[in-house]
Amino acid sequence: MDKLLSNRVVFLSGDEALAQGAYEEGLRFAASYPGTPASEILEYLSCCKGVDAQWSVNEKVAFEVALGASIAGWRALYASKHVGINVAMDPLMTSAYTGVNAGFVVVTADDPGIHSSQNEQDNRFIAKFAKIPLIEPSSPAEAREFVKVALSLSEEFDTPVLFRLTTRIAHTKENMVIGARKDIPSREFRVDTEKYVMVPRNAYQRHIVLEEKLVRLQRYSENTLLNRMELKNKKIGFITGGVSYLYAREMYPDASFLKLGLGFPFPERKAKAFAARVKEVVVLEELEPFLEEQARTAGIRCKTKKASYRIGELRPEYIPDILGGKDKKEDPGRLRKPVMCPGCPHRAVFTVLKKLKTVVSGDIGCYTLGALPPMNSLHTCVCMGGGITIMDGMSRALGRNIAGVIGDSTFVHSGITGLINMVYNKAKGVVIILDNGTTAMTGNQPHPATGRTVKKEETARLRLEELCKACGVAAVDVIDPRNIKVLESGVKKRLEGDVLSVIIARAPCKLIDRTRTDVPSYQAQKCKKCYLCLEIDCPALIKEESGLIEINPLYCTGCGLCAQVCPFKAIGCGGKVFKNLR
Ligand SMILES: Cc1ncc(C[n+]2csc(CCOP(=O)(O)OP(=O)(O)O)c2C)c(N)n1
After folding, report:
1. pTM for the complete prediction?
2. What are phi and psi of 475, to 5 degrees?
């Protein structure tokens, strides 16, 4: 082991512990696309000797590469955030039919409370829908242990195993003793067209196999130690799993529990036996009534939470109200408004789009913050890739050119097909690729257009301008957005044009390019208090009680954007790069 020494106590997050457990259990391949709270799994595995780890271009690709490795005989792991599973759904559904060869674990890191996602979907249902087993740890240490079980379960039942974390488990840290890596040989790959070639006739037969497998998995679920009864005080018996188990244990240490580490297939007999031994059964779970529905189907009468608790995270302090049948009290919400970093090159793009008063179809990344006041200049955000395709549909219906923005990582993930679709279907409009040279939103991971792999090794660099031209886009411009005048005239020209165009707004993320130039000077006597400088929403600019502006030198990177938007030259750009822009 090269990352950590075995038999030592280490302090690992759920993500890291899961990765460590898989490594110990002979994992040979891992693929992922960044997404909070899953990203650290692949980052950890990329440091483990003997594991071939990759950031794939998107989750569908990651899933397929990992499945391929498993079919050919390597223990393999796929990891993504919950919505990444949506992108991987096509191969996931059919992989339940083909089955695997060496163990294949599919990690979904869900985000109850929507800390950093576009929705709050409960991916436990994916296991039921795809008819594959679901394993859920309640702590980082369990993540390490359970992933080992998941790998062997996958081999024993010839199935992918869905392994679900939630933010609180993925990002909580715990001490644990780690072990050495097992020497697990590759499995032999045998040609088996009836198993791996899903043409209708074979797929039909494999569906029969899948149903039989589920019956066997059901029996396994009844007997496995992953599903354990903890009988204490018989007044209340909780049926629960994941983080909800920890919360209930904390609040009701003397209650009885049926703790489910394998939530699907649901252990009906065990659950009924548990229900018979306690006075009142409470199904306690975060988000959707996944266990509750299965318990009720098994004929168990149980108390459950009000529908209001299906929204947001469960908290320990909610449990007494849940038991009392009360609705959830309104959450005060988040107090801090997120904001782009000082010096972020995206800021200039939204300053221009706001000035040009165009409709903007948006996408997911740091730049989504362009939707918030005072920018207010991003008007849709649904899913990765939508910045281009939703713009296509909108501009058709609106009958005019509009702009669509998309980050460089997102463009490679799922923007390219939308762009080809626009070219093919004779669409018009301005696609702005916000190329900051990284996947900033999720922690600055590399992607194909950065020319670096997860191990920071050099690799072939995807050239976005050449790609867009090859897709057939008539006009492709590369503009440095830090020069706002050039950017404005470039965007204006294309918005007024009659062809589909791509503007690559290229300037490095300020978290990567840490260079700072001088803080602009502020001359109070020239300031007319128009506050156009505050419209760029830079954290370095503060309006003082006197109504004058202060530039916080601790935050200011000297990007010069405030100087460029000040019509009265009250802010002088001392920055070396933009000294002569006005
Ligand atoms: C299907 C899906 N996968 C992953 C994510 C997590 N995610 C959100 S935005 C983003 C990419 C951000 O990078 P980029 O497009 O380059 O924009 P930046 O943040 O650098 O401005 C990722 C990976 C997600 N929201 N949805």
Report:
1. 0.96
2. -125, 120
